[in-house]
Amino acid sequence: MENLRLLVKSFSSARLYQICKDGICIDYQTSHQTFIEKWTNVVFDGYSWLITIVKYLSPFIVYNAYKHGLDGHIALTKVSFVPLISIYFFAYFLRGSARFATPAYREFLENYEKSINSTSNVVRQSFLTKYDFDFHRWNVDMKASYSVTPYSDCHGSYHIPFLFRPFYYFMATWIAKPLAYPGSTYPINAIMKKNLDAGRANYMVHGNLTRAKLETVDNNHIDSVFIDNRAVDENGKPAEGPGQTLVITCEGNAAFYELGAFELPLREGHSALGWNHPGFGYSTGIPFGEADANAVEAVFEYATTKLGFAPKDITVYGWSIGGYSASYLANAHPDIGNVIIDASFDDILPLAIPRMPDFLESVTVNCCRRYFNLHNAALLPKYLGPIRFIRRNTDEIISTNGLASGNRGNQLILAVLESRYPGIFKDKDVEDVLGDWLEQTNPVPRRYSIENYSPEFCVEQIAKSADFPDPNLGVGLNRDQKLSLAYYLLTKHLSDCEGGHNNPLPRKYFKRPWKKSDDIVQ
C-alpha cells in the first residue's frame, strides 16, 4: 500500500532540481533524472510556452475571429484539442512512472510527505536546506495579518469609470506589466531558471539559511530566504556585531534574490532577508503597486514576529524599482532603523510617458496611476530616520536624457531634503545652486562653488537642534551659510557611484546611512 501511495503521489508531486548534502548541491536533473522524466518535463514546458504565446496573441486572435468569423478557429480547436490533451496525459503518466522508478526521487518524495505538513519548523527547514524543488507545492509558513498603512492613504484614490476598467486592466497586464516588471513574465522566468537554480543552491549550502513561503493579505505567496549572521557570546546571549542588523533587500524589475542585491549585506556580515516580487520566481500574483506593498508588508511582519528583529535593527535596501518597496515600507514603519535607496526614481510616470507613443499618453497615465502608482516622492519624505541615496552617474534607465541632469533620482533626493530641512532647501537661492550640483557627478566642483565653506560651522549648527531632522535648521542664516549647510547635508545623504544602472554596486558604497551622532560628540 505504501508503494501504491507513493506511485500516486509521483504523478502530481513537485519537480526536483537540487539535492544538497554535506555542503554540496547536486543537480538532480543531470545526475539522477531518467531520460523519460527529462522528455516529459520538456513536454510540460512546451505547454507553458504555448499558453504564454496564445495569451499574448489573444488580442490578434480575437480581432481575426471578429473579422473573418469563428468557423476557422472552431475547426482548428476541434482538430488540435484531442491530440494536445492526449499528449498531455500520456506525458503525465510517463513522468509519474519514471519518478517512482528513480530511487533519489522516491527518497525525496518520502521526506517531502513527512515535512510539508509537519508542525515542527526544525523539520520543515531541515528539508528545505536539503532539497530545491518546485516551491509552488510547498505549504505556507506564515500568513500576514496586517497592513499598517493602507495603500490609498499614501497614493490617493484614482478612479476609473467602471465601463473602462476591463480595458485598462487588460492594458496593465498585457503591456504595462511586461514593461514595468519584466521579471514577472514567463519568458524571463524560463530563460533565467537555470541561473536562479544555481544562485539558490549557493545559498542553500549556507549553514544558517531559512526559506519561507509568506502569504500576503491579498493571498499572494511570496518566496523569501533568510540568512542569520547573529552572533552569541559564551553565555548564549546576543553579541555585538554586524549580524545583529537585518537588511531587507528589495530587488529591481528583472532581478531576483537568487542573483540580485541579497549578497550585498552578506558581504558585510549582516543578517539578510531576501524576497521576490509577486510573479517573480516562486512568488505568485501580479506586481501591481498595491500587491507589491502587501508583499513587503508580509516580509516585514515575518522579520519582526518570526525572526525576532526589532524595527530599529532593520535596514531596508531598495534598488531600482525596489526603491518603491523600500519607500513604502519606510513610510508604513517610520521606526525602521535605516533606509538605503540605490538607483531609484521619484515617480514612475515621468519615465513611462516618454517610452510610449504620444497617442497612448492618457492610457499610460491611467494605467500607471491605477495599477503601477509607484510614487516614491510621496512616500519617502514621511520617513525621518537615517537615509542614504546612491546615484549611478551614467544611469541609462531612470534618466530621461541619459545624463545626471535627467536622473529622476534627483527629484526624489530633493523631495526628501526639502521635507526634512525646509529652512534650507526651500530657499530659492539654494534651490538654484542645488539644481546645478545635481547635474554634476563630482563633489569637488560643488565644494568650490561655496565661499568660506566650513564643516565645523555646519556641525555646530546641527548640534544646536534638539530634534533631528530639524525643519527650522538654517532659518535666519545668510545665503552662504545656507549653502554650506546644504552642501554638508547633501554629501551626508548622497553617494555618487560610477557606472550604469545595472552595474554591480561596489562594496564601498554599501554602508550605513549617516546619523547626527556620527559627527557630533554628545
Q: Tell me the strand percentage band.
A: 5-15%
Number of helix segments? 21
Structural class: alpha/beta
Give the % helix. Answer: 40-55%
Unreliable spans are: 151-156
User: How does the major sheet shape up?
Assistant: 9 strands, mixed
Shape: globular
Instruction: Please tally the β strands and state the result.
Output: 14
Spatially, the strands of the biggest sheet line up as 4-5-6-10-9-11-12-13-14
Alpha carbon gyration radius: 26 Å
Mean pLDDT: 90
Oligomer: single chain
**Spatial gap, N to C terminus:** 74 Å
Architecture blueprint of SSEs:
Layout: H1 2-12, E1 16-21, E2 24-27, H2 28-31, H3 35-68, H4 71-100, H5 103-116, H6 121-128, E3 131-133, E4 142-143, H7 151-155, H8 165-180, H9 186-204, E5 209-215, E6 221-227, E7 231-232, E8 238-239, E9 246-250, H10 263-267, E10 271-275, H11 289-305, E11 314-319, H12 322-332, E12 338-342, H13 349-352, H14 361-371, E13 387-392, H15 409-420, H16 422-425, H17 428-438, H18 443-447, H19 455-463, H20 479-493, E14 494-497, H21 516-519
Parallel strand pairs: 4-5, 9-10, 9-11, 11-12, 12-13, 13-14
Antiparallel strand pairs: 1-2, 1-3, 5-6, 6-10, 7-8
Helix pairs in contact: 1-4, 3-4, 8-14, 11-12, 17-20, 19-20
